[in-house]
């Protein structure tokens, strides 16, 4: 019997090539999209689950309330870790203090490499349960040890045995390799996005905490003097097996408050534990509470995936039902030769199962082929889950549900009729079947219109933020991080040499890179300040030539000048700071800080150094050659960029021969800030195209059947004198109305969803109404184009021909 | 007795009015009979044949088929009864376009769950009997009307029905082809198969042993 079904199915598939292509291809495409999104979501959801103990690991964060606003921070004072360890010994398995991760220079013989890592207390390896390829979890016990990732070890030592090798760290310290850990999977990171600053990189090394203490005087001071008020460290914990993160988090919340000086108590610092499973997905905080993060995209794309799959299934059902009219005769004949109802149901379900399986197989192939491209787009390294039983179970479920949905209508509806009725053709397209199909088409267009308008809104938002004035000139501006002491005290010599080479128009140094903010301080005072107002202002320590180098715009007053010795204590404010402090005529006003009085000599326009989606923070610029971390170079406009870079590299090598020359274009670094949004735009763009394409496939199939069914009517109308144009109108009017109706429903939904998304950004557009007009019109245009082929063909055909076929 | 219709009424409601398609039809058919149903167009011939063939229901009356009361049977049971005893031949053949001659013939056997070898034997026998062995791998569209109707009859006969119902089997054929089909029916009837046919032609009707005339759904 099944052989007979198979034969019929295969023949009707190969006989109706267009139909089969549309039907199978459309479903396969939908399944492909759903699978890709599913894999992506799985990857996101399993972030950090590679760590054995991941549901017991957390980072200690702190909520501080300043002027009624709660901010969440990850920076903590030195003595906190020890305090937690001793007071709550039973609640924690490990408490580990860590420096901020960053690039450090690792050197072995002639090789110098920038590697990303951090300094951590010795339990770090145990806390994260690193898989040690060489050495063991005691590797950090020796203060002159270092532990490398497999890839870092390979980069430095090649095939040589790394264990026991001595190497230099930041050109100053000799360390011995004591362990090699397996590279972390791409969807894992021991640093929260919050703590890793903007781009989180792969962890290459961990060095012992004691080394960190001996490296920096200020760390030592913080340790020896038990400074509860210096927040420069992060703390990771693993709660004990019998505890939960939540319980411990609640228990420890006042630990910081109880020890900080009274002045700091005013900001009511409350510590809590941020579970590792949330580090990636829920990394944003608003008013002290978790507020999304990557989870938003997971949800959004999850919904898109479900919708695209829904579209494809709808199509499949739609076409199957449209076609089942054609199969009515077969049903009738089969009944007259002795088939009973169940056998017919069996046959139709079998057929739709067959088609669905084909589509699934094609989709799997497509996913395998497209994964490299998708990975690139989504910045992932996802593999096809051949060996994952869950994947195949879900696949099986999808296949059964889809084939049941698509096959049930013809199976149940047609097989229930008395054979005479089907044979006579009197059940041709019941009214309910037609309106059901219209509903399906409307749903498809709603989804398409939402996706199209959504993509446009994302695009607008990105453009809007990109066009925002940034307050400085990023053209030809590069920045180099001063990873070692090699440059200390050589500012003037270096500047002269660079300028003399002709490659650099101006050079300056600064504490912060152009695209991030690294430090802010409180404790400022000025005339007219409300004594209850707790200040927090971003600090930029810069060299004299900073303004000229970055090209900031002085609004009032003047730039720093080398000629005036008093400028070494002068302040330049940005506009935001003037507003924040409420100063009238700020120039020449005095601002007091711990270290004395400072005169304001100028005000500059706001420079966009953080998120392009947030307002610029209040900032103070002051001269300090000792606290700078970055060299900023303005390339000479007379030379080509490659020429200039070559010259700079030559000069650089003279001053710091053992340090790799690494730099960033400010332009690129700035562009990075849009990465998540750009990715979202790309993906939603692709998904909208796919959604429209799938909908159009369905529409095309449907219009084919409509036109076919009305061939006779069209023939008669033509004989009676109808013009081709009027026939075309008659055939396409329905579809146009459907698209308009879909738009009516889609607009409020799209508006609501996109408004929600935009709320994430303080600096955002208000959704322009033309977006919806354009979306509807373009979808309508594509829809019309799709059906016009069939409509035109039916309208043009010679009536004698079409009448004879009846 | 093969079948018996008692006071059969069939109607449709249209615009609040009841239109009778069959009115008080009483009919007894014994095994081995060859009956021709005649009457003007629209008189209800096809309707009556479909009712007899259980392809269509009726609204009032009793229908007994081999001691079973068809009017009170469940759909499934009726379908089995039908499958077992009745073969249908249509004016427009109603072959499945996607199946070859051989496969069309095989279809009723599949539904009756015959084994593979038995099916092959029966199909071969039918092809031979109707002289269409050479056509067995062709699709219906590749056959002439007369040949298609031969396949239709062969398909109706393949599961050895007691009763053949034919609705204007020669309606789409020329007179020579029609005559051949009638000869075939005659022969089958001689072999013991009961036949009820609908026809417009006096000449075809003459092949039968009895003629029933319908007028406006009523036997006259
Ligand atoms: N579903 C229906 N609804 C309304 N009227 C119907 C229906 N089916 C059949 N009729 C009517 O019943 C009458 C008998 O139809 P039937 O097909 O039995 O005629 P017939 O005698 O076979 O005619 P012909 O010789 O043209 O085939 C016709 O008047 C037809 O219009
Ligand atoms: Mg008739």
Automatic annotation (TrEMBL), chain A:
Annotated protein name in UniProt: ABC-type antimicrobial peptide transport system permease subunit
Subcellular location as annotated: Cell membrane
Keywords tagged on the record: Cell membrane, Membrane, Transmembrane, Transmembrane helix
A single cellular component GO annotation: plasma membrane
Domain MacB-like periplasmic core intervals: 20-254, 446-649
Pfam families associated with the record: FtsX, MacB_PCD
Keyword Zinc appears in the UniProt entry: no
UniProt-listed InterPro entries: ABC3_permease_C, MacB_PCD, Macrolide_Exporter_MacB
Native source species: Flagellimonas meridianipacifica
Recorded GO MF terms: transmembrane transporter activity
TrEMBL record, chain B:
GO terms, molecular function: ATP binding; ATP hydrolysis activity; transmembrane transporter activity
PANTHER family: CELL DIVISION ATP-BINDING PROTEIN FTSE, LIPOPROTEIN-RELEASING SYSTEM ATP-BINDING PROTEIN LOLD
Pfam families: ABC_tran
Gene3D superfamilies registered for this protein in UniProt: P-loop containing nucleotide triphosphate hydrolases (3.40.50.300)
PROSITE patterns xrefs: ABC_TRANSPORTER_1, ABC_TRANSPORTER_2
Full protein name: ABC-type lipoprotein export system ATPase subunit
Keyword Electron transport among UniProt keywords: no
A GO cellular component entry from the record: membrane protein complex
